[in-house]
Amino acid sequence: MATRKASPRNKTKSNTNEEQTVDVKRRRTLKKETHIEYDSLEKYGYHFKNGKLVTIETDEPFEFNFYSDNDENQKRYESIGKLIDEAIFKLLESECHLKRVTVPVDPKKEERTSFVFVSDDLATADYLMVIIHGTGVVRAGQWSRKLIINEGLEIGTQMPYIQRARTAGYAVIVTNTNLNSFESPRFLRRPALRPIRGSGTAEEHGCYVWEHFIRSSHAKHVCIMAHSYGGAVVLKMASQFLKEFDQRVFAVALTDSPVTVYGRKVNRKVLEMLKERAINWVADAEDVNTDLGDSDCCELRSAGHTVHEWTSHTAIDAIFDYFAEEREQL
């Protein structure tokens, strides 16, 4: 029997497929050697779907070990993290209906600025909730970048707090305490970090927010939710605006904040005033809200989780119950 010969057309198609396969393999090899910085999550092949960061093509979770070189993996992780910052900002606007407001509020021409997020009823609502994240790379709207990437928006962001606060009738201010400086172009040979006016440190930012947003808000009753180093920001605001703080702040919720350490140099009157209205839900294996005694400036309760970054998520129900109970007594 004669062997049927492949037509030239079939040969061309086969060769093209082989060449495409080789090109794909070559591109993959290159990607595993050097990180290429992209300007969108989609170019990295990721998006948020049902609150989770997954691959666009297959819905697979984020993979850190993408390259053979760990330094390249870290560069990729940090680049994706910065893109997630902007994605969260957009969600605060679109899903939580907050608006981004520039700080300082009176920027000079070409002055570098930061920003906060506020609800549109800041001038009319009777109650206000101020939300403060911890230290590190996190920006407004985040508790933990790691949790956002690996666990999702529900656990890693402040969105559940914002949404529940809005439902409960609170105006909301979301601070941005970690955006403190910028690299000055005037010193190209020796780059220098220059502080952003009003936000040079986390504490300075918190006090600027009090002076220009909380003070002028309509709310007579203010509650504060702060994670980790956010406790230091609360102490600074309480110290600098002691009388106003005492008159307007009816409850402070902290999550795994070492405020005893932060409060060592704080006036005793501030600590006594804060202790009357503050609870710190700390990392602990006991059930959520278990009484763990107290410290110099707050009551201690279990957050129901032993990992620091998880405490804001696991304590959320207990915190809103606490705010509701204190609010009823006003």
From TrEMBL:
Residues 40-287 form the Arb2 domain. InterPro entries: AB_hydrolase_fold, Arb2, Arb2_dom. Residues 1-12 have a biased composition (Basic residues). GO terms for molecular function: siRNA binding. Pfam families: Arb2. Gene3D superfamilies: alpha/beta hydrolase. Residues 1-26 are annotated as: Disordered. One of its GO terms (biological process) is regulatory ncRNA-mediated heterochromatin formation. GO terms for cellular component: nucleus. PANTHER family: FAM172 FAMILY PROTEIN HOMOLOG CG10038. This is Arb2 domain-containing protein. It comes from Rotaria socialis. The lineage of its organism: Eukaryota, Metazoa, Spiralia, Gnathifera, Rotifera.
